[in-house]
Please model this.
Amino acid sequence: MPGDEGPALAASIDRLAARARDERWTHQEFLAACLEREVASRQTHGGNARIRAARFSAVKTIEDFDFAHQRSVSRDTIYHPATLDFVAERSNVVFLGPPGTGETHLATAIGVRACQAGHGSRSPPPWSGSSACARPTTPHGCATSSAV
Model:
């Protein structure tokens, strides 16, 4: 994020130190809290960098999907591919249905989730029309979308 250069720990060390003093943390507890903060920050920044590198036309999430508008699909059906189990299984995810029902939203959301989980991702090519593919850059499966 702009203006957030350098280790995240530098921005939060004073607050962590004050809390450690107030709560009488041991040196090990303070060190563990510092390391947890830095690791969490790096994971977040890494996910954000992978999302930027994927060049999605818009960042979408599964949580933002409008199930009230698309009543023919169950939440469980949509949330299952979002677990990214298909990546480990090296299988595909395909959404079928008429145009305008959220297929690109879902494919992008799964791509975003993959980026946040540490997988690289490529956004759909501009000529793909309503098809979208969020493909981890590792030799895993591809989440494809023709329609929901």
Summary: The helical segments are 8-23, 27-54, 75-79, 85-89, 103-116.
